[in-house]
């Protein structure tokens, strides 16, 4: 950590250059003796990204940012606060501390937070930033997370882990057993240090596979922001041996869409089917990730268009955790049929459909955008149809 970066002069320069072409800085003569052009660009790029992702950090003076890769791997402020809302207690240890966004959120709910990060430089950065943000109840330790736990005699109320999803060759991995630390092999040991474990995993992890790898799972939370799934959270309780609850949440502007169910609810649900009626419903990304393709329709008393479409319909309008559309017309999938609509510009979505969006645009001669929405899907009779609708 270069302490010169947080001097007033350098910080002002970084602020002044936000949003500018950083390549000019790299090609120009170094502005400061003790701070390289590369370091300046790193701070400018990361601070620019933090404006939307980490607004509290962005608005705090003298924050020291890591490189873009470390910042891209950290939780957003919204998801960190959501994690912290799920748990509380006297003490928590984050054994994969990183930049410290999650640890800071936990510090608002716990008396004492221990931030463990194996990269000593990143540990120092996190400690500096915690001080700038007034978080005095976080203890930063530069150590391998499991090594710290093995040497510790403390029993914590909660243990938090965000396993690295890259192997030694920096290639992405998709199974928990391939992540670092390997919490599948270490689960028994972890429960000697706490009764409660919170694990953050990639949105790409299959829930069924995750449940075969992890035991004592009490809740699974699928968190999306603006219909983009960001992370999957696993709450593990040492004494819990029943069916987990799957909770989906989608933060959309000021609205929080939530839906919960158990795996058995989905297994036992029976779908009703019909042709498109007056309204069309598309579940949000968190629900689709959860695998609730039957129960979501049964719960809201909606009809499904096709077993594989995951689109629902109704005659009366209901409040629904996803996108809702007013259906205008239905057309066969052909240029001749769709020409009757008079639509030249539309937003296209495909569900259970053989052609891609670009192929559909080319075939129908449609431009992108506008107020019209077209869902390309398959109906109950196996026919390819186009549903023209407007956002409700």
UniProtKB/TrEMBL annotation:
Signal peptide: none annotated. Residues 279-321 form the PG-1098 ferredoxin-like domain. Residues 322-389 form the THUMP-like domain. Gene3D superfamilies: Methyltransferase PG1098, N-terminal domain, Vaccinia Virus protein VP39. Pfam families: PG_1098_Fer (PF22013), Thump_like (PF18096). This is THUMP-like domain-containing protein.
């Amino acid at each position: 950590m270069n302490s010169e970066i947080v001097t007033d002069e350098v910080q002002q320069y970084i602020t002044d250059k936000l949003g500018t072409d950083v390549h000019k800085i790299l090609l120009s003569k170094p502005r400061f003796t003790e701070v390289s052009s590369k370091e300046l660009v790193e701070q400018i790029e990361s601070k620019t990204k933090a404006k939307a992702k980490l607004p509290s950090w962005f608005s705090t003076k003298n924050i020291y940012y890591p490189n873009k890769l470390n910042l891209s791997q950290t939780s957003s402020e919204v998801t960190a606060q959501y994690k912290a809302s799920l748990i509380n207690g006297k003490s928590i240890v984050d054994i994969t501390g990183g930049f410290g966004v999650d640890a800071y959120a936990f510090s608002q709910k716990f008396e004492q937070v221990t931030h463990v990060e194996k990269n000593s430089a990143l540990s120092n950065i996190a400690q500096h930033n915690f001080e700038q943000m007034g978080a005095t109840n976080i203890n930063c330790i530069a150590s391998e997370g499991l090594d710290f736990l093995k040497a510790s005699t403390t029993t914590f109320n909660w243990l938090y882990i965000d396993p690295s999803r890259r192997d030694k060759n920096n290639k992405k991995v998709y199974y928990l057993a391939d992540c670092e630390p390997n919490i599948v092999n270490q689960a028994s040991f972890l429960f000697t240090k706490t009764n409660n474990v919170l694990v953050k995993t990639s949105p790409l992890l299959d829930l069924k596979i995750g449940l075969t790898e992890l035991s004592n799972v009490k809740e699974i939370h699928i968190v999306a922001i603006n219909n983009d799934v960001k992370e999957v959270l696993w709450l593990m309780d040492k004494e819990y041996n029943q069916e987990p609850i799957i909770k989906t949440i989608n933060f959309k502007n000021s609205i929080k869409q939530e839906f919960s169910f158990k795996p058995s609810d989905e297994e036992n649900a029976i779908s009703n089917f019909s042709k498109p009626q007056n309204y069309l419903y598309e579940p949000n990304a968190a629900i689709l990730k959860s695998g609730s393709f039957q129960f979501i329709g049964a719960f809201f008393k909606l009809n499904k268009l096709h077993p594989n479409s995951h689109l629902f319909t109704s005659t009366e309008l209901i409040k629904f955790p996803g996108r809702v559309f007013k259906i205008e017309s239905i057309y066969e999938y052909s240029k001749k049929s769709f020409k009757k609509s008079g639509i030249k510009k539309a937003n296209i979505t495909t569900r259970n459909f053989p052609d891609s969006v670009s192929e559909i645009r080319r075939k129908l001669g449609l431009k992108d955008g506008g107020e019209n929405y077209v869902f390309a899907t398959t109906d109950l009779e196996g026919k390819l149809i186009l549903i023209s609708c407007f956002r409700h």
